Amino acid sequence: AQAVALASERKARAIQQALFKVTSDTNRCLLYTSCASIGLADIRHAWFILVTSVCGLGTFYAILRSGRSKDFADPSLSVQQMSFAVFILGMLYVLTPGLRGVFLVQTPVVLVFGAFTLTPRNCRLLGVFAVLVQAVATLLSIWLNASQSNISVEIIFLISAGVVFIMATDMAGRLSAIREQLREQKDVYKRQ
């Protein structure tokens, strides 16, 4: 009976975390489409991002609600959802040269959220993934917007983003390690 209650609690927590992420991603999409509606971004790109995000979020929601996620080591699919968010933010960086700063600052928020849901190792891996996505996004931005891009500025953005992403990831990893230690101590006290 206790195992069933624990499994039910884990599923409820996974769904709650997923809904928080969906809300965050939905707000990001609404912000982007609002920017497109006032001419700060291309409306075609806005629809592409919106459709991609809705399909991704719908897929995660369907997997979580169907119970299929219980087969995974992390039933809330946190790593996958955060990786998807980082990927979407990378796409936004490429597709919105005038709004890069808005979306660049959102990646550390995703990374820090990992402190509450990911293992320290997964926090750090997500940080490496975020830096790689930003590097690819920067190269694509330079290539696609060659006439408008200043390569020196793009490189400064990349270096700055890399430093911030790694620092946010390190902080999230440390917090995650502390969280795991506290959980282990709690388990030891329960057994005594």
Summarize, please.
The chain is mostly helical. Helix content is 82%, strand content 0%. The protein is globular.
Shape, principal axes of CA atoms: globular
Rg (CA only): 19 Å
Number of helices: 7
Q: Kindly state the mean pLDDT as a whole number?
A: 81
Q: Which regions are unreliable across 5 or more consecutive residues at pLDDT < 50?
A: none
Helix content: over 70%
Secondary-structure element series: HHHHHHH
> In whole angstroms, how far apart are the ends?
21 Å
The largest sheet is: none
Give the number of DSSP strands.
0
| Percent strand | under 5%
Q: Could you say which structural class the secondary elements and strand pairing correspond to?
A: mainly alpha
If you had to describe this structure to a student in words, what would you say it looks like?
It contains 7 helices and no strands. With about 190 residues, the protein is mostly helical.
Helices and strands, with pairings:
Blueprint: H1 2-37, H2 43-66, H3 78-95, H4 100-104, H5 106-113, H6 120-144, H7 151-191
Helix pairs in contact: 1-2, 1-3, 2-3, 3-5, 3-6, 5-7, 6-7
Task: Give descriptors for this structure.
192 residues; mainly alpha
